Amino acid sequence: MDMLIAIPAVCFYIIALLLVVPGLTSNNGIKTQPVFVTAIIAIALHLLLLKDLILGASGQNLSILNVASLISVIVASLTTFAILKMRIWFLLPVVYSFAAINLFAATMLPGAFITHLESQPQAFIHISLALFSYSTLMIATLYALQLAWLDHKLKRKKSLQINPNIPPLMMVERQLFKIIIVGYGLLTVTLISGYFFIGDIIAQGKTHKAILSLLAWIIYSVLLWGHYRQGWRGRKVVWFSLAGAFLLTLAYFGSRFVKEIIIGS
Q1: How far is CA 136 from CA 81, 85, 152, in A?
Q2: Where is the Cytochrome c assembly protein domain (predicted)?
Q3: What angle, rounded to 10 degrees, do the helices at 207-230 and 169-197 form?
Q4: Are 211 and 254 in contact (CB under 8 A)?
Q5: Are 107 and 63 in contact (CB under 8 A)?
Q6: Closest-CA residue to 124 (of 59, 45, 184)
Q7: What angle (nearest 5°) sits at the alpha carbon of residue 25, between those of residues 17 and 91?
Q8: CB pairs under 8 A, 24+ apart, for 158-165?
Q9: Tens-of-pLDDT digits for all 265 residues of the chain?
Q10: In the Cβ-directed half-sphere of 170, how many Cα atoms lie within 13 Å?
Q11: What is the distance between the alpha carbons of residues 220 and 240, in angstroms, rounded to a whole number?
Q12: Helix H segments across the chain?
């Protein structure tokens, strides 16, 4: 049954990719409506599948692959709705490929990490905030990579304005920091909620998550300070964004990856 949902969802993600990629390599305009409709169908099927994979009679199955798939569909949803307002075509191939791969992996490689969030509403709030903060900052990381690519092309004196699907460098930078501010705010609330809502957040096995998340928060704090107070741009912004994303990824998935994928327990 899950495969009957997964295969069409992957197919619709691929169709969305095929509608976007040719426009990135030519001067032809990308039509927003077909991409949006196709992606929404893929996302709807993705969410339907996750409902079956995560929600069960014994509790919520938040295995590492299910969580990765959930994050990927959140990122896909946010970026898909963003195309109605912004030129973010450059991000979509990565976003939709990531969503399709995670969806397929979660379906083909089932794991188990059962929780009971219905009896812990405070934990549900904390996890929801963590998912949205991580997803938002991952979108910011993709923006940072786009910024680095545009900066590289401009320094090599290659004109990018000919292609109407590629946004100007300064527009990408402004959008990047708007997204970082939103993600930073969500991460701040996540850390605060973890301190108040999760009683054993500093218990063995969770200390590293709190420390790594706090280090990522410090990096994003320095990045925002450096940009708005010291005028940081370019490579420094990209490297700080990547460092923050790397620390958050270690915090959210590091130990779970070792336990569930490498050790298999």
Answers
A1: 13, 17, 25
A2: 39-262
A3: 140
A4: no
A5: no
A6: 59
A7: 45
A8: 162/27, 163/24, 163/26, 163/27, 164/27, 164/29, 165/23, 165/24, 165/29, 165/30, 165/87, 165/89, 165/90
A9: 688 899 999 999 999 999 998 888 777 778 999 999 999 999 999 999 999 999 876 778 888 889 999 999 999 999 999 999 888 888 999 999 999 999 998 888 877 777 777 777 888 888 899 999 999 999 999 999 988 888 877 777 655 556 677 778 888 899 999 999 999 999 999 999 887 766 555 554 567 788 889 999 999 999 999 999 999 988 899 999 999 999 999 888 875 665 555 445 4
A10: 0
A11: 7
A12: 2-24, 32-54, 64-82, 92-108, 121-155, 169-197, 207-230, 235-257
Q: Which two tokens stand for residue 64?
A: 């590492």
Residues 6+ apart with CB under 8 A from 8: 45
Identity of the residue numbered 189: V
